[in-house]
């Protein structure tokens, strides 16, 4: 069960490793690791070495927190996130958000790879999240001892920070980057959707679909931590003409689109 004591174990260890007073927290999505190369004066903590941190699976042995300088700020970056589809629960996957908040971050930036349900959006485009639909069947706030951490009922009327979204929009215009704005639906996965499910997602009002982000955003809102999120659209989910997709292809497309995301995030961090 989540407790202050567990969180403090992680936070104290990271402070000892030199993770002092970060300004910004960043969560990097699948195939989106290039931002890390731009961080100067890095300190690294492997997830498996951080006390009380969720244990990384074999696939995720590379998971690490990186601290350093980017865009004139101190940042802490999660390289490799935890997903429900790996068997983690809502508490595990949002634990690092609470740790980064405990370290002192004032803003949270999230990226992910997602499928485009809105067919005006194309493979390789970026979409900023304006809102979301939680289809993961649970909440990271469904805790018996939630009172230790904040309110029970968290307002979600504006889950994504308007100021950061405005800044992202103007940066995209300045750098001639296509940045859509839309609704992200989160599913558990790991299987991709059927044609009937893509039709359903469209009817529900989703523009994109992915397997992450929403739990982290819910916890950020619980913590009153301003958050923004950008999806890299890696496949077009057209139920009338659905092509089989492969994860290596998703990762390849994410990698190609990533420099645009890095440029936006770097600019945003500079502006904060
Ligand atoms: N569905 C769910 N998750 C995804 C997709 C998708 O089509 N593409 C990338 N992540």
TrEMBL record:
EC number: 2.4.2.1
Top enzyme class: transferase
Source organism, top-level taxon: Bacteria
GO cellular component, one term: cytoplasm
GO annotation, biological process: nucleoside metabolic process
GO molecular function: purine-nucleoside phosphorylase activity
Keyword line: Glycosyltransferase, Transferase
Family: Belongs to the PNP/MTAP phosphorylase family.
Function: The purine nucleoside phosphorylases catalyze the phosphorolytic breakdown of the N-glycosidic bond in the beta-(deoxy)ribonucleoside molecules, with the formation of the corresponding free purine bases and pentose-1-phosphate.
Protein name: Purine nucleoside phosphorylase
The organism of origin for this protein: Nonlabens agnitus
């Amino acid at each position: 069960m989540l407790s202050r004591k567990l969180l403090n174990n992680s936070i104290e260890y990271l402070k000892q490793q030199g993770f002092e007073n970060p300004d910004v927290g960043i969560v990097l999505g699948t195939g989106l690791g290039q931002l890390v190369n731009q961080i100067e004066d890095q300190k690294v903590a492997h997830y498996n070495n951080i006390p009380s941190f969720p244990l990384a699976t074999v696939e995720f042995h590379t998971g690490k927190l990186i601290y350093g300088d980017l865009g004139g700020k101190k940042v802490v970056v999660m390289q490799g996130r935890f997903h429900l589809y790996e068997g983690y629960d809502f508490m595990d996957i949002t634990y690092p958000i609470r740790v980064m908040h405990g370290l002192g971050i004032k803003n949270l930036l999230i990226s992910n790879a997602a499928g485009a349900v809105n067919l005006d959006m194309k493979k390789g485009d970026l979409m900023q999240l304006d809102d979301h639909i939680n289809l993961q069947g649970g909440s990271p706030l469904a805790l018996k001892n939630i009172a230790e951490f904040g309110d029970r009922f968290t307002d979600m009327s504006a889950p994504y920070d308007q100021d950061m979204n405005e800044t992202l929009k103007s940066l995209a215009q300045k750098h001639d980057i296509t940045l859509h704005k839309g609704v992200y639906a989160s599913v558990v996965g790991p299987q991709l959707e059927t044609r009937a499910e893509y039709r359903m997602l469209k009817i529900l009002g989703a523009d994109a679909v992915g397997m992450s982000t929403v739990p982290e955003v819910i916890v950020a809102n619980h913590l009153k931590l301003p958050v923004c999120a950008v999806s890299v659209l890696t496949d077009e989910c057209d139920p009338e003409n659905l092509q089989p997709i492969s994860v290596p292809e998703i990762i390849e497309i994410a990698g190609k689109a990533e420099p645009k995301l890095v440029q936006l995030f770097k600019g945003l961090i500079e502006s904060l």
